[in-house]
Amino acid sequence: MSIIKTATFAAGCLLASQVMAAQPVAEIVSADEVDWGYLNPLRGDASPGAADLWGDRTKDGPTGMLVKFNAGFSSPPHIHNITYKGIVIEGLMHNDDPDAAEMWLPTGSYWKQPAGENHITAANAQNNLIYLEIDSGPYLVMPSAQAFDNGERPLNLHRDNMVWENNHDSHRLLADGVESTFLWGSTDKAQLNGSLVKLPSGFEGEIVTSANEFKAIVIQGKIAYQDSQTNMGKALSAGSYFGSAGEYHHLFSVADSDEVILYIRTNDTYTIR
Question: Does this entry carry the keyword Signal (predicted)?
Fold first, then answer.
């Protein structure tokens, strides 16, 4: 091969590799693939289990993780160095001031725990699993004596108190039977926000997004996910995660016998159709 042809071939390979590198790809993590450790390693087996879905809870950055609690778990009063958000995937959870009456939150419920706020966390079912999200890290557990007021206020939102929009109320929802409810953040462009989305049994469609941060966690039910780039399929049960950065079409379907709830964290608009 001549020098000119070799150079042309090499340049073509480089350009192709750059195009491939720039092509958006999906992150897909099923619940049965995660690596479990301890939420509070200092307590060992007395600690809830924890597994990162995205990010790294031990470092200074945002993270989304699964946390599981044994039946009858009740923590001592404590605080955290950072604010976190929790969504119940399975079981019954209570998170409040140490002297507060128990309010058990079932699947699909949401709470926010401010940094520095003294509280306890308890579980009241045989199996208890939540999705826990932080915007900065690392995630630390600290004694109540170090409590402080960071200006935020806690929130416990039972699923029965949520207000849902359908495709007649929201421009994001183009498919019949799909509903959503806003949980936190701002819908202004480039601002992070979190919402829940209900997908009816038998749904078959896609989420279209161009956000540079799009993350979705299956809170209830199961979806058959199909990667629009590789055409590979994967069954994603409750506790699973898929996400993308850049323009992407997330294709999936819901079984006729199921109803699915997704939690979506993003910093741009998306459409479900």
Answer: yes
Confidence at residue 65, expressed as pLDDT on a 0 to 100 scale: 98
Place of tokens 């459409």: 271
Cα–Cα distance, 184 to 62 (Å, whole number):
15
Segments in the chain below pLDDT 50:
1-21
Q: Which domains does the chain have, with CATH numbers?
A: 32-161 (2.60.120.10), 162-272 (2.60.120.10)
Parallel, antiparallel, or unpaired: how do β-strands 214-220 and 260-266 relate?
antiparallel
Q: Residue 251: which of 198, 209, 206, 216 has the closest Cα?
A: 206
Q: What angle do CA 255, 87, 137 make, to 5 degrees?
A: 125
* Contact of 159 with 103, CB cutoff 8 Å: no
**Nearest CA among 128, 137, 138, 113 for reference residue 239:** 128
Considering the entire predicted model, what is its pTM? 0.90
User: Is residue 235 a contact partner of residue 227, using CB atoms and an 8 Å limit?
Assistant: no
Which residues, in sequence order, are CB contacts of 187 under 8 Å at separation 6+? 193, 269
- Residue 266 structure tokens: 């993003």
Instruction: Note whether 127 and 69 are within 8 A (CB).
Output: no
- Is residue 155 within 8 A of residue 120, CB to CB? The reply is no
Per-residue pLDDT tens digits for 110-135? 999 999 999 999 999 999 999 999 99
Tokens at 61, concatenated: 């950055």
Tokens 């993270």, residue located: 63
The widest CA-to-CA distance across the chain, in whole angstroms, is 81
